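Hi R.,

Here's the chain you asked about this morning:
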Amino acid sequence: MSLPLPEGPFRFIALDVETAASDSASICQIGLACVRADATIETWVSFVDPCCAFSRFNTALHGIGPAQVRGAPAFAQLAARLEPLLGAHLLIQHSGFDKRAIAGAYAALGRLPPQWRWGDSVRIARRAWPEFTGNGGHGLAHLKTQLNLRFTHHDAGEDARAAAEVVLQAEGRTGLALEALLGKG
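And here is the predicted structure, written out as tokens:
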């Protein structure tokens, strides 16, 4: 079984997933970066048994294969544990992939995805650093160098933490609260 989940309350939780194959439902790792009111970040990560074959491309990208997920819980098991925590907080993803993957994983279970509140750190980065548009963009790889982020790309826990740090730096740079950066305040 994976580590105990962090206990809130949190200002927001950044969520990232890695997938075993081109099917976005094939989640093989999930990471959370839980941001407290004082901007400290507690990271949680778990391998997930995707219950499908791994593609060579995906394994080469993130280094996760059958050996790493052996004995890991399936998404259905993790979802039951995560739903109370994730349903109580604003979730931040970096692009739309993670929300699509979660929706796909629920669809594979024959369920509709929960109606969680989602925000996008790419959108936040565009507001905070408009000068990156057409000049490297707002992907995590470019933001890593421009914002001096230290993380290992394509690890769900590290990518979630990086997305959380993008939000925190954007708040500092703009002086805007998270809801305003999301265009909701």
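One quick note: The domain at 12-181 is CATH 3.30.420.10 (Nucleotidyltransferase; domain 5).

Cheers,
M.
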